[in-house]
Amino acid sequence: MPDSVLSHALKTPAILKLAGKRVVLASNSPRRKEILRTFGLAPDIVPSTFEEDLDPSEFEDIHEYPVATATHKAVEVYERLVSESPDNAPDLVIAADTVVLSHVQPSTSQTDYSLLPQVRQELLEKPTSKEDNTRMLLDLNGGVCEVVTGLTIVYPVLVSPGYQLKSIDERTLVYFADNPDHLISAYADSGEGIDRAGGFAIQGLGGQLIRKIEGDFNNVVGFPAASFLKLLDMTLEEDSDFLDI
């Protein structure tokens, strides 16, 4: 079985324990795969079949919505792989879900929130068409949005139901420049934003639309690698049997 840990990975305790283990990414996102490879991990790619049909309105805190989706994706893949091949069960399944929240006030604002304009926040996932992409970008233009990634890991334990979950959410503020309409139109025409939450790719042509960010750049791309690696280290500190089952 190929080693999921690449030679350039930093030799932290958690990474060393991943050596020789079966690590699975429950996503076919090339961006998440590339980010993990940058940090020295090359997991098996097993996309989740979860429908991703949760109702955002059922969550009191909208930040819990992508975490719940990521958790369903991780559990679905873990249970499927254990059922299909119990002798080759995964040691770690990683799943993530990224959404964008429009009209988020910057964390540096000194204005009392009660005095700010009452603008309804919108949950922006992937646009359904070029027209929908244009609508999203016009709504975000000149403002601040929040990119939220829910991240869940699943790993085996000896007690029922046979696995443990750990989840986090990572939040990054993205400041859009006051872009002219012709630039937004040209970007929507490029098609780059169609497969991206919020309708833009900061690491690509969409970077022309962005003035600055506050937080993890990789989170905006789709995977908060630094927080993921910290989660592995924290889990190892809390559970000495982590990755030994």
Automatic annotation (TrEMBL):
SUPFAM superfamilies according to UniProt: ITPase-like (SSF52972)
UniProt key word Membrane: no
InterPro entries from the UniProt entry: ITPase-like_fam, Maf-like
Keyword entries, A-Z: Hydrolase
Gene3D superfamilies referenced in this protein's UniProt entry, alphabetically: 3.90.950.10
Molecular function (Gene Ontology), one example: nucleoside triphosphate diphosphatase activity
Cofactor: a divalent metal cation
Keyword Transit peptide: no
Name of the featured protein: Maf/Ham1
Species classification: Eukaryota, Fungi, Dikarya, Basidiomycota, Agaricomycotina
